[in-house]
Design goal:
Layout (H helix, E strand, L loop, with lengths): L6 H32 L3 H5 L13 H4 L7 H29 L8 H10 L7 H10 L7 H4 L6 H11 L4 H9 L4 H12 L1 H17 L2 H6 L9 H21 L6 H43 L4
Helix pairs in contact: 1-14, 4-8, 4-10, 4-11, 8-14, 9-10, 11-14, 13-14
């Protein structure tokens, strides 16, 4: 049976598909632009000649990343903080979000409101750094993990999601003598995969892209610098070199000029490398992400 569509439906579909195709191109093009600039001739990249397709194909920029000081160590540190931080933050936020749904919790409303208040007030950078220093979390890997264990926004999302789960499931487990922890582990956790996966994506992206805590807290421990800070330092050095070339081109040797040609390509390459893990993980988590957002926003 062929469905007949009106002219208005056809026009709407054309407009709808055109809009989303253009929107997709706008979202994808920055990553495509990075990619084609990393695999093109460095001289052409430095002159801004690479815009829509690669020219002078080569992969030496990725091979030359081994020369960036501390890049391998920073990658391991960033990967470790992302895996550990995401796992612990998701677990803690999930369990605390479950606890605040229990009416039997001591001063539940007071604790929940106190947590919400912290979303609207911040002491600032200096008090935060002083607190971290007093707790011994400066120049310490756990300075990446402990401050992010509890996220109030994530707790709210989990609480809202858990409240949509039928209470009869918990009641039947309580009749069988299960504790709150067992109920959470055996019943709530499996049923909360969509919202927990959503939180895991947020935490992973936040840990992977974070560099301010590394910049402030790890000044005395260069071995704990994150990949993003290495990129930030390298971009700063490249900008300084570009500024020196702009003010005085006669005082630079041919080696420095060649370095300048390669710097822009390496910037693109490092940026591409830092973005690849997120781009690879997100498609597999997308279905949970969308479902978690929708179901977690049903109740206020």
């Amino acid at each position: 049976m062929v469905e007949r569509r009106s002219v208005n439906d056809i026009v709407f579909n054309i407009f709808n598909y055109t809009f989303f195709i253009l929107f997709t191109i706008i979202c994808v093009f920055p990553f495509y632009y990075l990619l084609i600039n990393t695999i093109s001739d460095n001289g052409m990249v430095a002159k801004g000649l690479i815009n829509f397709y690669p020219r002078g194909f080569q992969l030496k920029n990725y091979y030359n990343l081994r020369n960036v000081h501390g890049l391998g160590t920073s990658f391991i540190v960033t990967l470790a903080r992302t895996l550990i931080g995401t796992a612990t933050s998701t677990a803690v936020s999930g369990f605390v979000g479950y606890l605040v749904t229990k009416r039997e919790m001591w001063h539940r409303k007071l604790a929940y409101r106190f947590m919400i208040i912290t979303m609207y007030f911040s002491a600032g950078l200096i008090p935060w750094f002083t607190t971290m220093q007093m707790l011994g979390l400066t120049n310490n890997f756990f300075g990446y993990i402990i401050p992010g264990l509890v996220s109030v926004y994530n707790i709210i999302m989990v609480k809202t999601y858990i409240e949509s789960i039928p209470a009869e499931l918990e009641e039947s487990a309580q009749i069988d003598g299960a504790s709150y922890f067992i109920i959470f582990l055996k019943i709530i956790w499996p049923l909360s995969k969509p919202i927990l996966a959503t939180i895991a994506i947020w935490c992973a992206v936040g840990h992977w892209n974070s560099f301010q805590d590394s910049l402030v807290l790890m000044s005395g421990a260069p071995q704990l610098k994150t990949l993003q800070e290495r990129l930030y330092i390298y971009l700063t050095q490249s900008s300084n070199l570009a500024a020196s070339m702009g003010t005085s081109t006669t005082g630079l040797s041919e080696a420095q000029r060649q370095e300048m040609l390669n710097t822009k390509s390496i910037q693109y390459t490092v940026a591409m490398v830092t973005a690849i893990p997120v781009l690879c993980v997100y498609p597999f988590m997308q279905k949970y992400f969308v479902k978690g957002i929708m179901l977690g926003a049903v109740k206020g």
